[in-house]
């Protein structure tokens, strides 16, 4: 079972930036879908962005397109989420997750390994 550890969360002002990191261990990350999900209190877990570590293809939910960028560094077994132009609505606990290569970023149930989460708070 791949193990995932998130870091990089914190507080940011609206319009600010944060960079989240997801470090993987146990298995190489280049044959998985690695996703970033977020969950705010009282809301369902939402797929934010995913990357196919085999092909490099990416997915972004509409609300973060052109603001967030997902990338992977296979050498370091790490996936990043660069978050720019943050909005208060981005406030949530962010989780990284790993799933089979055919996982859907819109279906959290298909991801079998999850990190512990990192809190992102956007406020003035």
Give a verbal description of the structure.
It is a single chain. This protein is mainly β and 124 residues long. The chain is 0% helix and 48% strand. It is built from no helices and 11 strands. The strands form 2 sheets. Strands 2, 4, 5, 6, 9, 10 and 11 form a 7-stranded mixed sheet that branches. The radius of gyration is 13 Å and the shape is globular. 35% of the residues are buried. The model has no long low-confidence stretch (mean pLDDT 93).
Tag the structure with descriptive keywords:
mainly beta, 124 residues, 0% helix, seven-stranded mixed beta sheet
Q: What's this entry about, in short?
A:
With 124 residues, this protein is an all-beta fold. The chain is 0% helix and 48% strand.
Number of strands: 11
Shape: globular
Please give the count of helices: 0
**H/E series, N to C?**
EEEEEEEEEEE
Label the structural class: mainly beta
Enumerate the spans where pLDDT stays under 50 for 5 or more consecutive residues: none
> Span from first to last CA?
39 Å
- Report the portion of residues in β strands: over 45%
Q: What about the largest sheet?
A: 7 strands, mixed
- Indicate the radius of gyration in whole angstroms: 13 Å
Helical content class: under 10%
The average pLDDT score comes to 93
């Amino acid at each position: 079972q791949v193990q995932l550890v998130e870091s990089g969360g914190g507080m940011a002002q609206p319009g600010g930036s944060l960079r989240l990191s997801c470090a993987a261990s146990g298995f190489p990350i280049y044959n998985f879908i690695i996703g970033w999900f977020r969950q705010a209190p009282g809301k369902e877990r939402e797929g934010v962005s995913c990357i196919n570590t085999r092909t490099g293809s990416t997915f972004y939910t509409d609300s973060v397109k052109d603001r967030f960028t997902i990338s992977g560094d296979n050498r370091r077994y790490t996936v990043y989420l660069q978050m720019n132009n943050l909005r208060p609505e981005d406030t949530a606990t962010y989780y990284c997750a790993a799933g089979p290569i055919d996982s859907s970023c819109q279906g959290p149930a298909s991801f079998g390994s999850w990190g512990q989460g990192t809190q992102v708070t956007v406020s003035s």
